Amino acid sequence: MIHGDQAKAGKPIHVTLNDTAIAVLNRQLGKHPKSVFSYKGNPITQVNTKAWYKALKRAGIDDFRWHDLRHTWASWLTQNGVPLNVIQEMGAWESAEMVRRYAHLAPAQFAMHASVVDHMLNGTNLTQPK
């Protein structure tokens, strides 16, 4: 849970962790007495640091911001059929408009949902040849 006083919109955000995230957190146990992530014994308090930019350079990544990780996460979910309203809730976006930016990434999902009507009409005279 991200408490409201730590969130951009001032509202608490429930965070559901997958098995991969839990495994990463478990690997951090015992590395620092108070903080989850640390570097050379010091807690990491910022993410846009020299270390971040050096890591991007080592990985050969240009023009990438910390916030792009959120965009990638939402894109992956969209491309794998997670409904936009679920992504909105998980990502704590205030408006559906913000999440709809990712809709273009899932045309196959829209076709699948559109075919629901085909299944409903199957067996009626509307689907029979004249």
UniProtKB/TrEMBL annotation:
Record-linked Pfam families: Phage_integrase (PF00589)
Coiled coil (residue ranges): none
GO molecular function: DNA binding
Domain Tyr recombinase residue range list: 1-115
Matching Gene3D superfamilies: Intergrase catalytic core (1.10.443.10)
UniProt-listed InterPro entries: DNA_brk_join_enz, Integrase-like_cat_sf, Integrase_catalytic, Tyrosine_recombinase_XerCD
The keyword Transport is annotated on this UniProt entry: no
One annotated GO biological process: DNA recombination
Keywords on record: DNA integration, DNA recombination
Name this polypeptide is given: Phage integrase family protein
Species this protein is from: Nitrosomonas aestuarii
